[in-house]
Amino acid sequence: MMAEKNCVMVCAGDFREDSIQLLPGDFLIAVDNGLQGILKLGLTPDLILGDFDSLEEGAMAGCADLEALRRLSPEVLRLPVEKDDTDSMAAAREGLRRGYRHFILYGAAGGERLDHTIANLQTLLFLKRNGAKAQIRDGGMRIEILENEERHFPAGTRGGFSVFALEEKECRITIRGMHYEAENLVIRNDFPIGVSNSFLPEKEAFFSAQGSPALVIVRYEE
């Protein structure tokens, strides 16, 4: 069976340029100033989307002109500056509208804009609630939201693992094969008990989240 194609969104935050991985047929969206990172890699976005307020200055000065943008991509969608959606949320909606159900976001976490990081985490939940699978990636970091799901990690996996409850509703987690294990543990969104776990490389690891959604952050190490 052919793998489902991804909608890859490159946002305006910081990311490791060597972390972007594209597969044949993936749909690449430059989200506002995420265009700058895409062009540095010599890639051509399938769609440039945003209000382009962050393209007005610095290295991309002059690129906010629609004609200039159309020379960089076969499709450009300009959004109003004053709107309810963030540029990333608008890109997520556009990807869903085009039928994509697998999303990978780069440049969506970290940097100086904590507010945008939180907004992008909410965008992950929006995609989850609309039937899509989505991850934020940067180097060895993976962020996703799991709800009534489980994940298996093979022996030899190295790195850190954290899990957080997102809602007041009961979230029950099971963790096996990590430094801190738990069996059907109820976690709450007002107590970060799931932070800073780690894999045991000699063991296979297992995680499940049942009930309300859990935010999972994995930091893989070589």
Please tell me about this protein's structure.
- This protein is of the alpha/beta class.
- It folds into 2 domains: 7-139, Rossmann fold, CATH 3.40.50.10240; 145-220, Rossmann fold (3-Layer(aba) Sandwich).
- The chain is built from 4 helices and 14 strands.
- The strands form 2 sheets. It has a 10-stranded mixed beta sheet with strand order 4-3-2-1-5-6-7-14-9-12, sandwiched between helices. A 4-stranded antiparallel beta sheet has the order 8-13-10-11, with no helix packed on it.
- Strand 2, helix 1 (34-40) and strand 3 (47-50) form a beta-alpha-beta unit.
- Helix 3 (87-97) packs parallel to helix 4 (114-129).
- The chain is globular.
- The model has no long low-confidence stretch (mean pLDDT 90).
Write a short abstract of this structure.
This protein is an alpha/beta fold and 222 residues long.
- Quickly count the domains: 2
Number of distinct beta strands: 14
What CATH calls the topology of the largest domain is Rossmann fold
Helix-strand pattern: EEHEHEHEHEEEEEEEEE
How much of the residues is beta strand, in percent?
Answer: 25-35%
Backbone structural class: alpha/beta
- Measured as a percent range, the helix fraction is 10-25%
* Anisotropy-based shape: globular
Which regions are unreliable across 5 or more consecutive residues at pLDDT < 50?
none
Radius of gyration: 18 Å
Q: Strand arrangement, largest sheet?
A: 4-3-2-1-5-6-7-14-9-12
Total number of helices = 4
**CATH homologous group name of the largest domain:** Thiamin pyrophosphokinase, catalytic domain
Terminal Cα span: 30 Å
